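4.2 Preliminary Data

To establish feasibility before requesting continued support, the project team ran the inverse folding procedure on a target of 285 residues. The structure was first converted into the token representation described in Section 3, and no sequence information of any kind was made available to the design step. The complete token record follows.
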């Protein structure tokens, strides 16, 4: 990604990695990642509160630099759809955060035990791939009320294990909640800040909607492999100008400062081979 990041004075990178892992000449080919990992990190498990704990640690470190005004959360499987200057101008021209947030009416992830600290009408769902303004990032880092409730009552149901027989059926009746798909959305909703947010994510993903709720991998995003990562696929993603949210009956037309723009700046999940395919073809950027 080196050639996509020409203006080093306009960005800073922070990485939450496995505890003890160091990014240097031996572990990465990108000098932008050298020594950028957090000194303190936590072991992260998908579907656990450790995921939002890692996000909060990243934001806390990034907030120490007063020059940082926008905070974009990305993963190692994200690719940029445009060059750095386009992404920078797109994000910086808006005074708002970009955060997918909608009413979660169908899935029943809200645990009644969260009440009264988290009222049901403030419960929100959305993608964890968020872009926050400085004020909103500070709200996330300073929160000491909502996060403990999530840690206690928003937990992933154990995966299906047929070897456990009747015990497995009992385990599957437990409340199921994925913390990182609800935390920031619900926190900003409770902080009465939704009016300062573009309620959409800047990172595209296509979901594998399983026919069975109990299937282990049913709700993970589809991975773009080498064969599926080419100019035509990227062109289609760059031509998306609106997103429909079924539970809200809401079509979100993508705009910044009243100007219609493409919805997505990044996309995931791309395998390493797919990412190299895009780079060698000169598609990205």
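Position-by-position output of the design step:
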């Amino acid at each position: 990604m080196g050639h996509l990041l020409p203006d080093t004075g306009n960005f800073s990178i922070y990485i939450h990695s496995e505890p003890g892992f160091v990014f240097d000449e031996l572990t990465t080919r990108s000098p932008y990642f050298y020594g950028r990992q957090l000194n303190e990190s936590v072991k992260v498990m998908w579907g656990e509160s450790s995921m939002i704990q890692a996000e909060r640690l990243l934001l806390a470190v990034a907030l120490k630099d007063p020059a940082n005004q926008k905070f974009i959360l990305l993963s190692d499987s994200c690719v940029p759809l445009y060059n750095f200057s386009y992404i920078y101008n797109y994000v910086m021209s808006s005074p708002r955060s970009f955060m997918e947030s909608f009413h979660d009416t169908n899935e029943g992830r809200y645990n009644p035990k969260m009440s009264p600290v988290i009222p049901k009408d403030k419960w929100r769902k959305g993608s964890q791939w968020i872009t926050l303004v400085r004020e909103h990032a500070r709200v996330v880092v300073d929160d000491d009320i909502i996060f403990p409730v999530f840690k206690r009552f928003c937990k992933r149901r154990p995966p299906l294990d047929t070897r456990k027989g009747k015990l497995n059926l009992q385990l599957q009746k437990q409340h199921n909640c994925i913390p990182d798909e609800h935390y920031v959305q619900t926190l900003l909703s409770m902080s009465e800040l939704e009016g300062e947010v573009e309620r959409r994510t800047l990172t595209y993903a296509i979901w594998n909607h399983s026919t069975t709720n109990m299937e282990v991998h049913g709700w993970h995003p589809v991975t773009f492999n080498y064969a599926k990562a080419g100019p035509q696929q990227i062109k289609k993603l760059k031509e998306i100008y609106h997103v429909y949210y079924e539970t809200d009956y809401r079509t979100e037309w993508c705009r910044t400062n009243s100007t219609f723009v493409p919805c997505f700046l990044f996309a995931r999940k791309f395998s390493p081979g797919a990412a190299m395919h895009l780079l060698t073809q000169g598609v990205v950027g």
